[in-house]
Structure formats: C-alpha cells, structure tokens
Write a structure and sequence with these properties.
Largest sheet of chain A: 4 strands, antiparallel
Structural class of chain B: mainly beta
Radius of gyration of chain B: 13 Å
Number of helices of chain B: 0
Number of helices of chain A: 2
Strand order of the largest sheet of chain A: 5-4-3-9
Structural class of chain A: mainly beta
Largest interface: A-B, 37 and 17 residues
Largest sheet of chain B: none
Oligomer: heterodimer
C-alpha cells in the first residue's frame, strides 16, 4: 500500500544534516545530500532514474519504477501522488506538484520519466 | 520544534534480486 506522507515534508520543517547543520526542508540543495552521505559511515547516495510512472492501486497513488545505481537495478515504489522526491540539480519534485504545494506548502517541480532522484543505499552493499 | 535527520527525506532503494 502507498506510503503516507510523513510530517517532515511540511514547509518549514527543520532538517539536520550529517555535519549537524540545520536547514529548512525547502532550502535543501543537492550538495547537502551529497555532503551528508560523504561523511556518513553507513549510507551512500545512489542515482535513481525514473523509468516509468503508472497508476497505483488507489486513486491517489502512483507506482514509480526506478533504475537504481550503476547496476540500474529495477525497483518499484508505490507512493501518494504528492510524495516528493529530490531530483539532482533540480530539487523537490512530485507526480502532483499542485497537491504537494496544497497539502505541504512545499514547492515542487513535476516528476517526469528520465529524472534522476537522490536515493540511499548501504555502503558496501553490492 | 522537532528536528528530522537528513536521511529521512530521501528513499532507501535497496536493489532487489535482478531478473
């Protein structure tokens, strides 16, 4: 079932980076994720390219198929339309920017096939 | 004010078994 949208996507939420710095969710940049992952002992950033976006099981859900990491591993996630992903060099993006803005006041671009999203994996996982 | 860790905001996409 689709993952409900957690509270930290609300505009103004305070996010702690790996070096301790605090930023608002709407002010996060690609470098913040990259730098935080660099100094993390367990987590590593992957590039996950959106390959397909299909309707989900419920009217407000979508199934997004990603090609994850260098190996282009195929991973599907079902999320609500308003769920934001962070696109490299672009920032927050969702399948329904209007809904994300309305529900969470978080400005979003439209998530499209071909977009490359920030995702996490474990260091040393192969 | 709650403070959330950076890694909560991006998905953990563990590759599944490839076909």
């Amino acid at each position: 079932s689709p993952v409900a949208l957690p509270p930290f996507f609300m505009r103004g939420s305070i996010i702690q980076l790996a070096d301790g710095e605090l930023k608002r969710v709407e002010d996060l940049k690609t470098e913040d994720f990259i730098h935080s992952a660099e100094i993390s002992s367990e987590l590593k950033i992957d590039s996950s390219t959106v390959e397909r976006i299909d309707d989900g099981q419920t009217p407000n859900a979508v199934v997004i198929q990603f090609a994850v990491g260098e190996l282009k591993a195929q991973v599907c996630v079902e999320v609500l339309l308003e769920y934001p992903f962070f696109v490299f060099g672009q920032g927050w993006s969702s399948c329904s920017p209007d809904r994300t803005t309305r529900l969470f006041e978080l400005s979003c671009a439209k998530l499209c096939v071909g977009d490359v999203c920030v995702s996490l994996t474990l260091r040393g996982l192969r | 004010v709650p403070v959330f860790p950076w890694h909560s905001l991006v998905p953990f996409l563990a590759p599944t078994q490839s076909d």
